[in-house]
């Protein structure tokens, strides 16, 4: 069970890792660490000298199997109030205020062996990465498919880490679609997620399966609608919307 | 830029997951997995799946089926004001 009270605590930044040009992963050490579930997030709160506070939620990227510390992956929103600070000012050794783990709806606890279909747009991959890492740490692994939509190859977050997960050959398959630019000889998809693509991705899965969709709101809306159109019961589809893909606020 | 057919408000829409921290602060327990029933159309859905609009001065959760407002929350300096007339129930697990 998740904790019922969520107190703010001061985390220490252990490491900062570049994932892409616009995305970094923060490894935070927590004095009051508690076990999370894959899909949950932490809130980060910044306080200015005059007392002004800004707060944002960031998904946990690391598996629950790691104790005492968490990875939060943060996309930089240039006009944002929090992510530019996390990207451009924060350095290892700094301390920041966080609370969590938070959320009980968009989570995969691995309790069933139903196959998993994960659909990500952009930084929507982050909570799904926690699910894939949690799955990789389990003894019995349900079949899993990841369909990941990014603008370009350079915008794919965790590419090497995802390729490493594939090397286990444990029933995971990954499909990429690059919606704006594709490298030469690109073998993946090169268009927005549509019904034909989803139908191809789900073919090898034995139904029933659980669907998790996370990313920009319009992508989530459209992918969820197509899944229902393909006959997947709505109760098997869980969604988390991150807002606009080119955020004018938030971040 | 966005295509003109896209409503900016639809794009800014989040869901109950984005309000998980605030709801937990108010209710003292995890709320996104809690079933709620829309007083308008009767649709039952977990709070995490409700549609969230958080750009205004208050926060609004709408039914994903009929779009009617289920919960409206306003933060004032000393209170949370919760208008829940759009929910016929919230079913919280006993602790």
Description:
- By secondary structure, chain A is α/β, with parallel strands linked by helices.
- Chain A has two domains: 9-102, Translation factors (Elongation Factor Tu (Ef-tu), domain 3, Beta Barrel); 116-242, Rossmann fold, CATH 3.40.50.80.
- Helix content of chain A is 20%, strand content 31%.
- Chain A has five helices and eleven strands, in the order E-E-E-E-E-H-E-E-H-E-H-E-H-E-H-E.
- In chain A, the strands form two sheets. Chain A has a six-stranded antiparallel β-sheet with strand order 4-3-6-1-2-5. Chain A has a five-stranded parallel β-sheet with strand order 9-8-7-10-11, with helices on both faces.
- In chain A, strand 3 (41-47) and strand 4 form a beta hairpin.
- Chain A is globular.
- In chain A, 45% of the residues are buried.
- Chain B is globular and about 45 Å long.
- By secondary structure, chain B is of the alpha+beta class.
- Chain B has helices spanning 8-12, 20-27; strands spanning 14-15, 35-38, 44-46, 51-53, 59-62, 69-75, 80-83, 87-90.
- In chain B, strand 4 (51-53) and strand 5 form a beta hairpin.
- In chain B, 14% of the residues lie in helices and 33% in strands.
- Chain B has a five-stranded antiparallel β-sheet. A three-stranded antiparallel β-sheet of chain B has the order 3-2-8, with no helix packed on it.
- Chain B has one domain.
- The chains are: A alpha/beta (251), B alpha+beta (95).
- The A-B interface holds A 2, 4-6, 41, 43, 55, 57, 99-100, 102-106, 216-218, 221, 238-244, 249 and B 6, 8, 10-18, 20-21, 24-25, 28-33, 46-49, 52, 55, 95.
């Amino acid at each position: 069970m998740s904790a019922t009270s969520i107190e703010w605590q001061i985390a220490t930044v252990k490491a900062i890792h570049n994932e892409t040009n616009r995305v970094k992963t923060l490894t935070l050490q927590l004095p009051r660490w508690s076990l999370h579930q894959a899909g949950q997030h932490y809130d980060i709160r910044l306080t200015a000298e005059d007392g002004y506070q800004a707060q944002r939620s960031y998904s946990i990227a690391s598996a629950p199997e790691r104790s005492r510390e968490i990875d939060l992956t943060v996309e930089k929103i240039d006009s944002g109030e929090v992510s530019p600070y996390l990207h451009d000012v924060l350095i290892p050794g700094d301390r920041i205020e966080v609370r969590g783990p938070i959320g009980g709806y968009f989570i995969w606890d691995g309790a069933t062996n139903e196959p998993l279909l994960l659909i990500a747009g952009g930084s929507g991959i982050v909570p799904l990465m926690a699910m894939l890492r949690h799955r990789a740490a389990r003894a019995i692994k349900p079949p899993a498919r990841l369909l990941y939509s990014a603008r370009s190859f350079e915008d794919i977050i965790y590419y090497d880490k995802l390729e490493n997960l594939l090397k286990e050959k444990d029933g995971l398959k990954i499909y990429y679609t690059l919606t704006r630019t594709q490298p030469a000889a690109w073998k993946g998809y090169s268009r927005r997620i549509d019904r034909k693509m989803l139908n191809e991705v789900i073919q090898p899965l034995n139904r029933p399966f659980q669907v998790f969709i996370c990313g920009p709101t319009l992508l989530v809306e459209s992918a969820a609608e197509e899944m229902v159109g393909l006959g997947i019961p709505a109760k098997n589809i869980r969604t988390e919307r991150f807002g606009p893909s080119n955020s004018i606020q938030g971040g | 830029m966005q295509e003109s057919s896209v409503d900016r408000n639809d794009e800014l829409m989040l869901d109950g997951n984005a309000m998980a921290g605030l709801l937990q602060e108010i209710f003292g327990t995890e709320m996104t997995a809690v079933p709620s029933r829309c007083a308008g159309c009767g649709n039952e859905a977990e709070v995490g799946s409700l549609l969230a609009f958080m750009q205004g001065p208050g926060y609004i959760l709408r039914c994903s089926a009929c779009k009617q407002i289920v919960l409206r929350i306003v933060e004032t300096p000393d209170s949370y004001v919760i208008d829940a007339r759009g929910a016929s129930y919230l079913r919280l697990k006993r602790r």
